[in-house]
Write a structure and sequence with these properties.
membrane; RagB/SusD family nutrient uptake outer membrane protein; Serine Threonine Protein Phosphatase 5, Tetratricopeptide repeat; 2 domains; SusD-like_N; mainly alpha; cell outer membrane
């Protein structure tokens, strides 16, 4: 089993002490005061650890659902009432969520906790660490992580309260997104000179200098949407800072799929910043910290194929509109999809022994209880056969096997629970190349001898055996981003930037533009009555 990075395995007591929401209602009483902890380099690192634990906490579940199920990338219908879950998944697909939507509330709390935990860790290190390069580096790392939390929260919710002083419980109103953007930019720029320039094992899973540049590149690429002012040349400069470092490279076709295996990690030369997951790591209190992709993506009939110690449920699939992007037969990324008739690794058909009624609940023959051997067949279309109003395809083999499945984060047979070892990347080198190509196509100035075409072909050469492109446009970049970053929480962001979020897909027809950001949840107003609800929401 992959060894988790040491700073994530902080003691339970320390995690409990340092974890915090954006606003804390009661004082924390503990023996671990700045007078006795931290006092040396190892303890300073432990004080940083809870920030990364907070980042891991709800990233792989609630945050993933919020970003992906609200796009055309993934859909999770009910099956005979299973996975209806108070309409949480249905609302994301139909774009009719409200301020009481479960995952929206969880994401607000999750990212507030990340920011609050960062504030607390910064406060402790400012009080306890001696002045010098080490203090500057550690606090800059924490400021970068706080900025990342604000970026993720700004991307989802737009207008936010800015709170950087731990222990100040005064409520603050949310400020416009452009002001939040400026704050994040200033924080990252202030941190950059002091961040560790190393890459690889020593900084894996931690914010280094190139994490900061990648965050800036992502902000500048989206700046026209976030603030109304285009910053494509700034995006190119940030990308070039990573490209010219020479510390990262594209994984070749031969190892692309392995980037997402359970044993991935610092050996992956594309990973600029990734979240390490380990079933033995303790989560933040009140969260799960889980990485559940196989549970959601692998059909229940395939437990034996992947030697899993549990039965996966497989309620999640993609839509035909999204799968249509995978139209190059020479593309290695086709290998991460489960489609059509299914076979085990020995080439034998995967058979489910059921009844005629168990195969098809609409069967009306008198022999519905007769035995039926079904060769598992994943079909592309989602049909609400049982009840359209409850988003239900039916609790039979036909229903459970509707939709192609993305098996990108390969099932982990070493874990005794549903939690996987696969680390989840946030920034990869391929994203840097595509962000630069897109920025050039949107009017930025080409640099380093690159063109949008040459950058697109760099990636294509490592993903497909097909001939290089002769031309490239924004439509191609959008499609290539869909292929490259499926299930990595970026597709909603891409759909908005490319003007596709208001389109119709699956069963969704809602084109309300205010849903590009989510409502501030009801529970947030209870804690902070100075908040102002986002436009369009009651």
């Amino acid at each position: 089993m992959k060894r988790i990075i040491r700073y994530l395995l902080t003691p339970v007591l320390l995690i409990s002490v340092l974890s915090s929401c954006h606003k804390i209602d009661v004082p924390i009483t503990t023996e671990l005061t700045p007078n006795v902890f931290p006092q040396n380099d190892a303890q300073y690192t432990q004080a940083i650890g809870p920030v990364y634990t907070a980042l891991r906490s709800d990233f792989g579940v609630a945050y993933w659902f919020e970003q992906s199920l609200s796009s055309d990338e993934a859909i999770m219908p009910a099956r005979g009432g299973n996975w209806y879950d108070n309409q949480n998944y249905r609302m994301l697909h139909y774009h009719d969520w409200n301020r009481d939507h479960g995952f929206t509330s969880t994401c607000w709390n999750y990212l507030s906790r990340l920011i609050g935990t960062s504030n607390q860790a910064i406060s402790i290190l400012r009080q306890t660490m001696p002045e010098g390069a080490s203090k500057n580096s550690n606090i800059s790392e924490l400021r970068t992580m706080r900025a990342m939390g604000y970026y993720m929260m700004m991307d989802l919710f737009g207008n936010l309260p800015l709170d950087t002083l731990y222990g100040d419980f005064k409520p603050r109103a949310n400020v416009p997104r452009a002001e939040v953007f400026n704050f994040i930019e200033s924080e990252v720029k202030a941190a950059l000179p002091y961040l560790n320039p190393a890459a690889g094992v020593t900084t894996y899973g931690r914010a280094n200098r190139y994490t900061a540049f990648a965050l800036l590149a992502k902000m500048y690429l989206n700046a026209e949407y976030y603030t109304g002012t285009a910053r494509y040349n700034d995006a190119i400069i940030a990308c070039d800072s990573i490209i010219q470092s020479g510390r990262y490279a594209l994984e070749p076709r031969s190892s692309y799929l392995r980037m997402f295996y359970p044993n991935n990690g610092p050996q992956m030369k594309e990973f600029i910043f990734a979240i390490p997951f380990d079933p033995t790591a303790l989560p933040s209190p009140g969260t799960n910290g889980m990485m559940y992709r196989a549970r959601y993506d692998v059909p229940r009939s395939m437990r034996t194929k992947y030697s899993l110690p549990y039965t996966p449920e497989g309620p999640e699939s993609t839509l035909p509109e999204f799968y249509a992007h995978f139209n190059d037969p020479g593309d290695v990324r086709n290998g991460m999809w489960l489609t059509g008739l299914q076979y085990n690794h020995a080439g034998q058909p995967i058979i489910v022994n059921t009844t005629k009624k168990g195969y098809d609940f609409t069967y009306t023959g008198s022999d519905g209880s007769a035995a039926y051997a079904y060769h598992v067949n994943l079909t592309p279309n989602i049909v609400l056969r049982l009840n359209a109003a409850t988003f239900d395809v039916g609790n039979d083999e036909i229903g459970w096997n509707m939709g192609y499945r993305c098996n990108k984060f390969y099932p982990d047979s070493t874990s005794i629970s549903r939690n996987q070892n696969n680390d989840m990347p946030i920034f990869r080198y391929s994203d840097i190349l595509l962000m630069k190509a897109e920025s050039i196509l949107r009017g930025g100035t080409a640099t380093l001898g690159h063109t949008a075409l040459s950058l697109a072909n760099m990636l294509r050469a490592e993903r497909s055996t097909s001939a290089p492109l002769a031309t490239v446009n924004l439509d191609y970049i959008y499609t290539e981003r869909a292929r490259e970053f499926v299930h990595e929480t970026w597709h909603r962001n891409d759909m908005i930037r490319f003007g596709k979020f208001e389109g119709a897909w699956g069963f969704k027809t809602n084109n309300e533009t205010y849903r590009r950001i989510f409502p501030i949840p009801t529970n947030a107003f209870v804690l902070n009555p100075m908040l102002i609800q986002n436009p369009g929401y009651q």
